[in-house]
Write a structure and sequence with these properties.
- The chain is mostly helical and 244 residues long.
- The chain has helices at 11-28, 46-70, 78-88, 92-102, 108-111, 114-141, 148-154, 159-181, 189-215, 224-230; strands at 35-38, 42-45, 233-237, 239-243.
- Strands 1-2 form a two-stranded antiparallel ribbon. Strands 3-4 form a two-stranded antiparallel ribbon.
- Strand 3 (233-237) and strand 4 form a beta hairpin.
- The longest helix has 28 residues, at 114-141.
Length: 244
């Protein structure tokens, strides 16, 4: 059955089908010329491949996270947790859609260049670290442990120190971002302008995530503005603890 004939009923599948068909229609108009062969996805354009591959990695990471959660398992190292969460935080599918949204044509050697890949990885780390910081209280209440604050706490750090270590890790990624910018090569004026737009958009993904965290009614029990201004929260973990 072709993509056009497939009519899903599940709302999530309907959304993904819509995205896939838009990518397919864009490629048929010649917007994307790169073609990649992979076993699971047959033949598809570069942006389609990157979106499908990143969504596949996301689903696998979520399943692994659910498995570890169900068996009370938690990776024992910060790098191990980051490696799992880089896929489960779901930034890479968004990065793939940047090309579609802006009609970019980034050659495969550009999008796979170590400097570009490094910047995408750094931005993903920024998103997942800041997400774990703001979501800790909610996830703790739900009994979820795949959070960098929980990991630091289990390593013997007090709760405030756990937040402090996460904050320092976040700052280190900010520094790495600006250093990585200086390592970007040049591919010529036209491609360079597309790369700059891509990199700016990747940066905006991280910025949008933290702004959303303070606009949504997901974490702060209506105290969004207060928490954003004070950068202080009170956590009822065992005895009351205050973290900044």
């Amino acid at each position: 059955m072709s993509d056009e004939q497939f009519e899903p009923e599940n709302p999530l599948l309907i959304a993904f089908r819509s995205i896939w068909l838009r990518l397919s229609h864009a490629s048929s108009k010649g917007n994307y010329s790169t073609t990649v062969q992979i076993t699971e996805l047959t033949m598809c354009t570069g942006v389609q491949f990157r979106f499908a591959a990143s969504m596949t990695a996301y689903c696998k990471a979520i399943m692994e996270q659910v498995h570890l959660q169900s068996t009370a398992g938690l990776t024992s190292t910060v790098e191990g947790l980051l490696a799992l969460r880089r896929d489960s935080i779901a930034t890479t599918p968004v990065y793939a859609l940047i090309e579609y949204a802006y009609g970019l044509e980034l050659p495969i050697e550009v999008i796979r260049h170590p400097s570009v890949q490094k910047m995408e990885k750094i931005a993903t780390d920024i998103v997942l670290i800041q997400n774990d910081i703001v979501s800790y209280a909610k996830e703790k209440a739900l009994g979820e442990s795949h959070n960098i604050i929980s990991l630091y706490h289990l390593q013997g750090k007090c709760l405030q120190s756990s937040f402090d270590f996460a904050g320092e890790l976040l700052k280190s990624r900010y520094r790495e971002w600006y250093l990585a910018l200086t390592e970007l090569p040049t591919w010529g004026e036209e491609i360079d302008s597309h790369v700059q737009l891509h990199i700016n958009s990747v940066q905006n993904v991280a910025l949008a995530n933290i702004n959303w965290s303070f606009r949504a009614e997901r974490y702060w029990n209506g105290n969004n503005d207060k928490v954003r201004k004070s950068r202080t929260i009170t956590l009822p973990v065992q005895s009351a603890a205050t973290a900044t």
